[in-house]
Amino acid sequence: MDGNTWLKALNTLLTIVQRLVLLSGWFIAALVLGFTIKSGLQPFLAMFLASLLGVVALVVHEGGHYLGARGCAMPVLHVRVAAVEIQVLRRGWRVRWAPQLKRNRLGGYVIAASNLQRPLQQQWMLVVLCGPLLNLLVGGASLALGLSWPGVPGAIALAFAVINLAMGVGNLMPAWRVLPSDGMLLLGWYRHRDDQRPELAQARLLALTVAGVPSAQLPVDDLQRLAEGPMPGPLVAFGCRLNALQDQGDWPAAVQMEQELDQLLAARSAQLNGMSGLIELLRGELAFCRALLQRDAAPLNNTPMSAEVDWNAPWLRPRCLALQAILEGDRQRGEHHLQQALQAANNSVVLSQGKSEALLAEQLRALPAPTHL
Known about the structure:
The protein is mainly α. It folds into 2 domains: 5-191, no CATH class; 198-366. It contains 15 helices and 4 strands. The chain has helices spanning 3-36, 44-71, 120-148, 151-171, 182-190, 201-211, 220-228, 233-248, 251-267, 276-294, 298-301, 307-312, 316-327, 331-346, 351-365; strands spanning 76-81, 84-88, 93-97, 108-112. Helix 7 crosses helix 8. The chain is elongated and about 80 Å long. The mean pLDDT is 94. Its cofactor is Zn(2+). Keywords: Membrane, Transmembrane, Transmembrane helix.
C-alpha cells in the first residue's frame, strides 16, 4: 500500500470511531432518560430529549469556538448551529432558519477572520480547541451535578454530561468527513509554520477585507492564488476585482467583466454546486454597473435577487433601488434607499464594505439629473 492508501484507511477508521463515540453518547443519554423518566411515551420521549440535549451541546460547542475567537480579538462573521444561522453585526445580530444539506444537517461552524496583530498558529489553535474544551468542561460540571441530584433532574444532568463528553472527545479525533474535525484542524495548526503559505491566501484576504483594506489594495499574488484554486476561490477573487473597479468608478471596465464571469462559470461548470447564491450576487453587482453606465434601470429589472442575496449583501438591493430612483428623477427616494444601503454596510463586521458603499453613494449622488425629451 502507498502512503495515500494508508492515510485514507486511517481516516476511514478514525471516522468510524468518531461516529461511534458520538452515537454512543446519544444512546447512553437516551438510556439514562428512558430508565429514569416514567412515561407512556417511552422510549420516544427519551430519544427526543436526548436529541434536544444534543442540540444544546452543539450550542455549547460552537459557543466555545465563538468565545475562543473573541478571546483572540478575532472578528466573527457567522455562526451556525444545525438549521439556525446567525450573522454577527457590529451592532446586534441577524438570525435565520436555513437547513443545511442532509449530509451535514446537524453540524455547526463559526466563521471568523484572523487577527492581523497575532500569529495565525496561536489564535487558530485556541479557537479550534475551545469548542471541544467547553464541551468537556460543561460535561464534567454536569456529571458532578448529576451524581449529586436525585431523580429526573439528576438524570437530565447525567444525560447532558454524557452527550457533552462524547462530543468533546469525538471532535478531538483527527478525522475528515464533510469537513475536517477539530482534531484534524488542531493537528494542522500545530504543524503550521508559515503564515504566508499559498493555501492560506483566502484567509489572509478575508482578514484584510474585514480590517478595512479596500479591494484595490489587496495583495495581487493572493488574489491570483485564489483565482487559480478551487471554488469558491475564483468567484471570490472575481468579486474583489469587480469591487475595486466599482470603488474607482471605472464602469466600462466593470461591465466588461460580465463576459469574464460567463467564461469562468463555463470553465468551472463541474464545481458550481452550492455556488448559486454567490453567482447571483455577482450578477446583481454587474447589473448595477451596467445600469449606471447606460443610465438605464432595465438591467436591474431583468436581474432578480433572492432572499439569499439579501441575507449576504443587504446593501445591494437598496443601492439598486437608489440608482433606479435617481435615474427616474426622484432624488428624495434615491437618498432614502442610499441611507438604507449605507446603514446596512456600516453595520457589517467587514469594515471595507462600509467604505465601498460610501464611495458608491457619492458616485450615485453625483449623477446628473435625467433629461426627458
